[in-house]
Amino acid sequence: MASLTYQTPKTGAINFTVSDKVGLNTNVLNKDESFPYPSIRYGNGGSYDILGADLHLSEAIAWWIRKYTLGYAQQFRNEGFIKNFTVGVSGSLVTVSATLLFITPV
What we know:
This protein has 106 residues and is mostly beta strands. It has one domain (2-102). The chain contains 1 helix and 6 strands. The protein has a 4-stranded antiparallel sheet with strand order 1-2-5-6, with no helix packed on it. The protein has a two-stranded antiparallel ribbon with strand order 3-4. The mean pLDDT is 77.
């Protein structure tokens, strides 16, 4: 993720962000015979590393999602009960790119 923010007290804050998500979906022919549990290293947050695993895949679909976000916020100062009041708006464009299908012989 990359984010750039420009802020001044007079004009407010403008933010531009680009973020990526990458994933891999697989199907294994026979889970009991093909899925090597000892080769998989589990990480934080439910993630895992399958780089050293021999999966004997029937198919794998890799995908990449990119999200562009542009936002603006302005802070208003007040002398009354509410000292600061902030109003903001943002919009996003989401694109899906690079969907690949790999099929290996059984």
